[in-house]
Specification:
150 residues, alpha+beta, Jelly Rolls, 6 strands
Length: 150
């Protein structure tokens, strides 16, 4: 990387470096990791029987059911350079309200990005949704700017 490009990268608030999509079958572990100076930001996470593929090879019914588990995956992984999710785990099983069919195995579908950049200074009341990762950045940042309504 040339000096000009590196300077530009250092000045930007957030630069995306890598997008990863994974299916994690039952009895497997998800091992997410990002390069140095970047962290995982979960974009989407579903637990269920979404489609045929590596984890579900034969359609015996109940295809297309899924549970949005972004709130769990975000809490476990976003903001970390590396993370591991064991499938299944108790939190995923509790969240599995749509596809809890005895004898049929759900799987975890994750999409995440590796993000490199500087800490964000945000006014919390301007956000309609604040991910766990952003909340952690704000709480760890001693220089967080308090926003006032005028």
């Amino acid at each position: 990387m040339s000096v000009d490009n590196e300077e530009l990268l250092n000045q930007s608030m957030v630069s995306l470096t890598l997008l990863v999509a994974e299916d994690i079958c039952m009895s497997e572990n998800f091992h997410g990791s990002c390069p140095d100076r970047s962290v995982i930001v979960i974009q989407s996470a579903s637990f269920g029987r979404m489609k045929l593929g590596r984890c579900i090879e034969v359609d015996v019914g109940y295809m297309g059911c899924e549970n949005d588990v972004l709130f769990l995956a975000d809490r476990w992984c976003s903001g970390h350079r590396k993370c591991t999710i064991i499938v299944p785990n108790e939190d995923l099983q509790v969240a599995n309200t749509e596809c809890n069919i005895r004898g049929l195995s759900p799987y975890l579908e994750l999409n995440y990005e590796c993000v490199i950049g500087k800490k964000l200074h945000l006014c919390l009341h301007h956000l309609s949704y604040t991910s766990y990762y952003i909340q952690r950045l704000i709480s760890e940042d001693a220089n967080f700017l308090t926003c006032k309504l005028w």
